[in-house]
Amino acid sequence: MNCKAKLLALVTLLVAMEVAAQSNSSQPNPANSPPKASPRENYAGDDACRSCHQDKVKSFHQTAHYLTSRLPDKNSILGSFSPDANTLKTSNPNLFFQMEARDEAFYQTAVEGVQPYLSSRSERFGLVVGSGGKGQTFLFWKGDLLFQLPVSYWREIGWVNSPGYRDGVAYFDRAVIPRCLECHGTYFESLAPPPNRYRQTGFVAGITCEKCHGPGRAHAERYASKAANVASGAAILNPAQFSRERQMDLCAWCHAGHGVALLPAFSYVAGEPLDKYLELPQLAPDEAVDVHGSQVELLKKSRCFQSSTMTCLTCHDVHLPQKDPVAFSEHCLRCHKSESHPKMTRPIARDCIDCHMPKQQTNLIVFNWNGRKVSPEVRNHWIKIYPEVSSSPEKQNQKQ
Fold it and tell me: What is the H or E stretch that residue 87 is in?
């Protein structure tokens, strides 16, 4: 290489180094950058709400929403750990599961084999999922990975194989994905990949106030002072004041099927259009819809919904436990006159729900138990005439 070529190469190298230096200087230095803000820094927690809304928080904490996931303790786990009721036998005579409480913790143990050649695996309860109205399932941590335990609890039976688990097999590998936690918790920080990796601290189990009302720190701080300027706004979201579409979006977040995430889990905030965050299945008019987890789709198929401005909040007060179908019938009578029922010979005002929104078995939650498959019943939110219900002997007797 002659001198001229060497000089040109040196100049080119110097220019490249200068460009790189300028580029690097324009980038923030991670060591000197301010710490990244936590996505939860504007959230205050239910204790902050309790100071002003004690009665509402107290009643809300008795609802299925709030109790839909909890830390394990003797009160949150409804299944029995007593020696006469803590064992689940399986269709495999060489496999059984035992639920144990020891050292202030709770464990599921799979015992397999025949004496004296037994092997076992124990995993500690990490989270309880389900309010217990129908049943509960349980999760366990393996490091920062979250899995479902193989034994669940069903109120009508007791300990059962977890939904979808094959009877007679000890299986501990079902990963818990963010979409599951998004509907059974307020916040978990995903550390994916893999999809079931989460931070074990800072999560918020159960559905809490801010799941539906949005971040509450500014609201709590504003009203903590007697000199609060109320005219400046409440700094909190009130779903009752949302448009019909946004009200339905908020409920559809967890009551309209699994869907496909468009943005990270737990990034949706009440009052936003849900379709920016979650792509829900578009169902054909004649497509069957399961009664579990699809309440919004079923309600929208109802003539009552299509011919009115009703939303989920028309009938549901989410701050209160609501289990009495007779009480729900009162909402029907706001539009329907009990005296004008076409098939009743006397005024009827009690059985609207059981007749027109009957409980039906779901195909999405199936337990293998005692050699057969069983499913819980869930109330159908498609409000319509069900001939098989209205013509049942029990309902016929009510016409007399």
Answer: strand 87-89
